[in-house]
Amino acid sequence: MNPVCPAPYTGSDRVLLGHGAGGRLTAELLDSLVLPAYDGQSGPLEDAALLPGLPELVVSTDSFVVSPLFFPGGDIGSLAVHGTVNDLAMRGAEPVALSVALIVEEGLPLDELRAVLTSLGRAAREAGVPVITGDTKVVGRGAADKVFINTTGIGRRIPGLSPSAAGARPGDALLLSGPVGLHGTTVLSTREGLGFEADIASDSQPLHRLVRALAPLGADLHALRDPTRGGLASALNEIARDSRVPVEFAEDAVPVPQPVASACELLGLDPLVVANEGCLVAFVAPARADEALAALRSLPEGAAAVRIGEVPRTGEPGRVTVRTLVGARRVVDLPLGELLPRIC
Mind listing the pLDDT tens digit for each residue in 85-113? Predict the structure, then answer.
């Protein structure tokens, strides 16, 4: 294993692995280089965007470079479908269609490619979304790592829902639909042969049915996020920043499976920054919190849903704090470096 040391960042004129981690370096890259090239963007950076002139339609695009291709609980094919469907769901949309583009390395056994595509097709059918277009490119040996997948998803917003990263409000209840840390620790353990994967599996799954179950909340469902790269810490910081509110949660309320906790303790990782692919955080009006929890728990994907915190009515906007097991409070920042590369 060759872990990346999370040393203090002093700036670089080259792309670092951390620029793709979904944390502070990713935000800096977007703000300083990517968005200015596109003439900038106003408002929050969402998981998916409303189509100009067609606000009932939502579009999202994503690329998947996970290593290894296959891991307990999933593979790059099913992950590509789930990740894109979930980005649409975080804007309150159900999937309508997918595009799939493949970048394949010369020399990849056809049986491996067939297994990836078979899994991708099965995941799309189970999610109820057709793959309607795509592209395939082959590059020379060493120019890619086996296969990379790019997907674009089109979704249709569920009537009455308009969740946004900027939508959290003072007093909101903070809900989490399931345990954290499963995907990142599973992929890392499989990649490095650590053995933890014997006890855990990725939580990769589509979440649009959970969001459909929350539809009766209507405008009282304020914000949604699936805590993928950068984990729960990144997701909460992004919403706190874009909504300009403080967020506080209880450490002992966050469900961390024991094998995940053991792996993180051994590797020096914080479960709050480990990637997930099958849970969401929801900010809802406090009077509807119990109703929302019941809706989440009514489906297998949300059977372990819990309330973990709230949006305090006072506090520093944009700051995320956790109430620790010993009763203290500490600030939870955006992750800086890339502790777990090639996770999605």
Answer: 999 999 999 999 999 999 999 999 999 99
Could you say which DSSP state residue 134 is in? E
Provide the 10 A C-beta neighbour count for residue 158: 21
Strand partners, 330: 322
Burial class (CB in 10 A: 0-12, 13-18, 19+), 101: middle
The residue written with tokens 């459909």 in the block is: 212
Tokens encoding 68 = 């290894």
As a whole number of angstroms, the distance between CA 179 and CA 175 comes to 12
Which residues on adjacent β-strands are paired with residue 153? 60, 98
Euclidean distance between CA atoms 129 and 137, whole angstroms: 23
The pair of structure tokens assigned to 290 is 């119990």
- The β-bridge relationship of strands 306-310 and 173-176 is antiparallel
- Phi and psi dihedrals of 288, rounded to 5? -105, 5
Residues of the chain with pLDDT under 70: 1-11, 18-24, 26-32, 34-35, 40-43, 337-338
Is residue 28 within 8 Å of 336, Cβ to Cβ? no
pLDDT in tens, 65-85: 999 999 999 999 999 999 999
| CB contact set of 37 (below 8 Å; sequence gap of 6+) | none
Dig out the tokens for 319 from the structure: 């700051």
Instruction: Give the pLDDT of residue 20.
Output: 65
| Beta-bridge partner residues of 100 | 134, 151
What is the pTM for the complete model shown?
A: 0.90
| Partners of 223 in beta bridges | 283
Between CA 6 and CA 9 the distance in angstroms is 8
Do 262 and 196 contact (CB within 8 A), yes or no? yes
> Cα–Cα distances in Å, from 114 out to 82, 127, 276, 342, 344?
19, 20, 26, 21, 20
As given in the structure block, the two tokens for residue 331 are 């600030």
Whether the ω angle into residue 68 lies within 30 degrees of 0, i.e. cis, is yes
**Backbone phi, then psi, for 273, in 5-degree steps?**
-110, 5
Record the tokens describing residue 297, joined without a space. Answer: 């728990």
Q: Residue 22: its pLDDT value, please? A: 61
